Structure formats: structure tokens, C-alpha cells
């Protein structure tokens, strides 16, 4: 296993304490919101770090091309589920559509990996989608404590939806 792949896997492992923090936050322990924020920052940094390490060490692998977006999706789904359950993100349809698309892309990636074909890498619009969606979810998480306006929340949501549609189109093209 390469160092970059281990970093990607660590992102999946970090989703576990994130779930536990969100559970405590939903029980009213709002002080843990900042711990969750810190953990989200670490998760985001590992997302940049794994790709950087893989390219620098020239250890880009098909497994890495598959596990990196899976780790992204696991962490993103944890945050989305919390936001939906806590009624901060009322768009279950967005979550379901995203989940269906991502499961489809993961199945194709696993098939390509085991059929000895090149696994497709994430595209630029997909990376923008992930970044804007992470920003949007952070805004929804901290809207009260940071005083983020509804305009900012819904603008990032709309941009995220547009990038979702565009990146999905690019993947199936």
C-alpha cells in the first residue's frame, strides 16, 4: 500500500469520529461543533495531501484513483446526512440523486479496476463540485454561529447543484 492510499483510507476512518461528534452536537453539545469543524479541515487537507503525495512519489495507482473519490463521498455523505436529519439542509432529493450517481460511478470504477483497464480520474468540474459542496455544507453547519445569511447559503447551494449537473454530464460523456 502506498502512502497516498493510506492517507485516502485515513479519510474514511476520520468519518467515524465525525459521526460521533455530530451525534453529540444533535444532543445539544454545541461546543463540539468546533471540534467537528477542525476535523472537517483535517479531512479536507488529507484530500489535497493524498493526491500531492501520489504525484510527487510517482505512486499513482488505480486503487488510489478509486479510493480517493470514495473517501470524499463517505465524508461528504456523513455531513449531508447530519444536515438533513438536523433540518439544516432540507433537500433530501439532492442527497439521493448524489448518492445514486456516486454509487454508479464507484461500481464502474471497481469494474474498470478489476478488468485491468484504466480507472477514470476525477475531472476538474467534479473537483469544483466537491469543493463548493464542502463550502456549502460548512456554511449550513455554521450558519448560526457565524451569522451566514440565507443568500450566501442558497447561492452556494445553487452553484453546487449546477456543478453537480455539469460534472455528472462530463463523467457520462
Automatic annotation (TrEMBL):
Membrane-spanning parts: 33-54, 66-85, 91-114, 126-142, 148-169
Pfam families, per the entry: CDP-OH_P_transf (PF01066)
Topology versus the membrane: Multi-pass membrane protein
Gene Ontology CC, one term: membrane
UniProtKB keywords: Lipid biosynthesis, Lipid metabolism, Membrane, Phospholipid biosynthesis, Phospholipid metabolism, Transferase, Transmembrane, Transmembrane helix
An annotated GO BP: glycerophospholipid biosynthetic process
GO molecular function: CDP-diacylglycerol-glycerol-3-phosphate 3-phosphatidyltransferase activity
Keyword Iron-sulfur: no
Places the protein is found: Membrane
Family per similarity comment: Belongs to the CDP-alcohol phosphatidyltransferase class-I family.
Protein name, entry field: CDP-diacylglycerol--glycerol-3-phosphate 3-phosphatidyltransferase
Amino acid at each position: 500500500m502506498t502512502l497516498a492510499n493510506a492517507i485516502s483510507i485515513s479519510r474514511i476512518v476520520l468519518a467515524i469520529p465525525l459521526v460521533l461528534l455530530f451525534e453529540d452536537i444533535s444532543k445539544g453539545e454545541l461546543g463540539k461543533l468546533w471540534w467537528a469543524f477542525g476535523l472537517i479541515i483535517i479531512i479536507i487537507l488529507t484530500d489535497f495531501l493524498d493526491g500531492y503525495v501520489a504525484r510527487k512519489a510517482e505512486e499513482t495507482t488505480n486503487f488510489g484513483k478509486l479510493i480517493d473519490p470514495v473517501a470524499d463521498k463517505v465524508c461528504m455523505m456523513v455531513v449531508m446526512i447530519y444536515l438533513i436529519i438536523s433540518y439544516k439542509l432540507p433537500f433530501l432529493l439532492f442527497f439521493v440523486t448524489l448518492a445514486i450517481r456516486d454509487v454508479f460511478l464507484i461500481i464502474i470504477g471497481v469494474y474498470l479496476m478489476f478488468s485491468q483497464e484504466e480507472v477514470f480520474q476525477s475531472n476538474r468540474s467534479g473537483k469544483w463540485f466537491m469543493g463548493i459542496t464542502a463550502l456549502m455544507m460548512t456554511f449550513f453547519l455554521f450558519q448560526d454561529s457565524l451569522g451566514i445569511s440565507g443568500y450566501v447559503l442558497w447561492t452556494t447551494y445553487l452553484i453546487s447543484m449546477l456543478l453537480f449537473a455539469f460534472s455528472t454530464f462530463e463523467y457520462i460523456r
